[in-house]
Hints:
Layout: H1 2-22, H2 26-34, H3 51-76, E1 83-86, E2 100-102, H4 103-129, H5 142-154, H6 169-193, H7 202-207, H8 210-237, H9 240-249, H10 257-275, H11 278-285, E3 289-292
Antiparallel strand pairs: 1-2, 1-3
Amino acid sequence: MAVTIGIAVVTLVLLVLAAKWLRTLPAVEGFLAAYPGHSELPEDAPVGLPAWLGWQHFLNAFFILLIIRTGWLVRTTARPKAHWTRNNKGLIRTKNPPQKISLDLWFHLTLDALWVLNGAVFIVLLLATGQWMRIVPTSWDVVPNAVSAALQYASLDWPTENGWINYNALQVLAYFTTVFIAAPLALVTGLRMSPAWPKQAEKLNRIYPVEAARAVHFPVMLYFVLFVIVHVFLVFATGALRNLNHMYAARDDGGWAGFWLFAASAVVMAAAWFLARPLFLRPIASLMGKVSK
């Protein structure tokens, strides 16, 4: 572990030094002047962040945190402390008997369903309000501008932050990848691995084997972990109060409203993390099926 950390630190130092050297070259400075790090938005793009994005941001963070936790438990727990079997006399009835799964997997799948529902609402609101223009590239110059933003970050002379008006190109690509690539990949691979997948569909299973889903699902989880770490770091490193007001209070100032809303959301997420254990999950899971050891 110490060797890995040491290699990472040396690599980061070399990256910073290389970026600083590149910025001394006239051609690179000319490139940065031509591509400052952000693309111009369409004229009809909305300005500011609406209140619904605040609660969407909280719900996405809440679900992702617990999905990552339960996904890791499903992957690493050899002997689950409890299991769950769906009630086959409820709304969902199947000819074959329900499959017995771990309580961790039940919670993971339940969270997945809520996350997908929340994501569907998010997409509809993005399209209905025009907010999609802020996270979907609308010009090919997003690529050189993303390179410019990356070089500015690497040289520790970071691009100007003005998320209330426009994200920089690197942020746009990161948000686009998260919402429109990583999230759908998590959904389609998770569905393939879930008990809900039709196991008798031999042709479909040959076209889309479970091994392919597993090979993609775990790296996608690692992507979400990395995205969350970088996202949280940049929120606090580039003007915490203003950024938190953007994300939680739908306002563009340096007040404390967004911070207190963020603090409250962090308490809720911490409580959910603590309560996400068999002792507290059993009564809820029992409403939808049978819990056993």
